[in-house]
User: Fold this.
Amino acid sequence: MRYLTIALTKGRLAEKTMALFEKAGIPCEEMKDKNSRKLIFTNEEAGLRFFLAKGPDVPTYVEYGAADLGVVGKDTILEEGRKLYEVMDLGFGKCRMCVCGPKEALPLLEDKRLIHVATKYPNIAKDYFFNQRHQTVEIIKLNGSIELAPIVGLSEVIVDIVETGSTLRENGLHVLDEVCDLSARVVVNQVSMKMEARRIRELLALLKSVC
Ligand code: PRP
Assistant:
């Protein structure tokens, strides 16, 4: 029997996913060694193989079939826009994609002004401003610490993830609008979904029973 291969998002998401697999009776002892730099792990009895990848690469591995399944944040699924099936909400990693900025930026949104929007998620920001709000804006791609942008005058607002809200609070920024809710999702390769339908269905049912 060939392994079903599962791409996990390195970091907290992978840890939570493995805790869920363990609860479902599929432990992966090898992966618990924090000092290990190993990237790929197997559970022989279950016929499963797990590997760790950077979040934005998980949908890529799944679309091309290098992984049958993946666990990744909804933010990354939306941003990457890959061809795959999103089949399950795991209910953890919950947060929101929001438009944030100083209070003074609110009228700029309401008046649909031509503003600068800094974000790590240019595709999500484009879809939100162009297709949903019908507001023309200039999107500026950044790679992290997005909250800096309106403080130092790079942009009027940002599109970013808000979890507890403490980064915003500590930097004097506010949620000005919500784009969408986010959480960890299971994605499946479109061919695997047909070829391995039974095994994938069983695996998802098992995960659902402990979710
Ligand atoms: C994320 C996000 C916010 C922060 C939100 O950043 O981009 O900055 O977490 O969390 P909070 O609402 O609980 O404060 P992350 O820590 O992943 O790093 P980054 O800024 O480098 O993207």
The mean pLDDT is 96. Residues 65 and 110 are 44 Å apart (CA to CA). The longest helix spans residues 197-210.
